[in-house]
Amino acid sequence: MAKSLEGKVALVTGVSHAGQVGQTVAKALAAEGAVLAICARTQSNVDARAAELRQGGARVLSLAASLTDEVQVRRLIANVVNEFQRIDILINLAGGLTRYKPAVEHGLDDWHAEIDNNLLSAFLTSREVFPHMAKTGGGSIINFSRAGGPQANMVAYNCAKAGVDALTRTLALEGRDIGIRVNAIAPGLVDTESNIAVMKPEDLKRWTKRDDIASAVVFLASPAAAGVTGQVLPVTGWGL
Question: Is 157 among the residues known to form the active site?
């Protein structure tokens, strides 16, 4: 049976620690035939994840970059293109919630950190891959938003993810005539090893499963989603 992503080159950002969404997504893409480039800030972390993926038979290029640095993003994309001659799929997973406190206690450093890590990073990587995807006939960009409305004590994160939604829809409009589809996944509370260790839940039934997120990524990246662009897809499991 043919694999849905055979011959495609996928760049996945935010693949740093074991037991997180990035590694699960990368593994799922490789299982469908994609060649991988994975990225994180720390070379030793991304190398460890690449070694795990290679044990499963994946072809993987591991690169370190800060995705809030324009020069490093340009170098990252150039390195992937130099290695594989193309990028067909971009998964903007880098980011996350790091500032949890009332809005009146958010300083400018807090604000910039959340906006930059979650929104600026997705903008810079997407902007940089657009010309390469256009040259090779198109591609798929998948951003990461969040399910549900704004929550208290995370004002900068809420605004960053609202920005990701707007970025997704804007880039979808700009990419539609050159074959670039842009969508986002909006997960609920995810069963990452770090979340479980911190929150110590008694029941994981209503948590979003990493494997379910990975399946949604594979769908949006594949020809099965050829008619889907500009959408934010909630993946919440039984949490609704």
Answer: yes
Per annotation, catalytic residue among 157, 192, 221, 222: 157
Task: Name the amino acid, one letter, at 60.
Answer: V
Domains of the chain: 9-234 (3.40.50.720)
Under the banding of pLDDT at 50, 70 and 90, the label for residue 149 is: confident
**Residue 169 contacts residue 230 (beta carbons within 8 Å):** yes
DSSP string, 109-134: HHHHHHHIIIIIHHHHHHHHHHHHHH
pTM of this prediction? 0.95
Which of 154, 140, 217, 214 has the alpha carbon at shortest distance from 182? 140
Compute and round to an integer the Cα radius of gyration of the chain: 17
Give Cα separations from 145 to 28, 105, 111, 114, 160 (angstroms): 20, 24, 17, 13, 9
Continuous segment of H or E residues that includes residue 159: helix 155-175
Residues in the chain: 240
CA nearest to 130, candidates 61, 185, 177, 190 = 177
Q: Is 64 in a helix, a strand, or coil?
A: strand
pLDDT digits (tens, 9 = 90+) for 5-58: 999 999 999 999 988 999 999 999 999 999 999 999 999 999 999 999 999 999
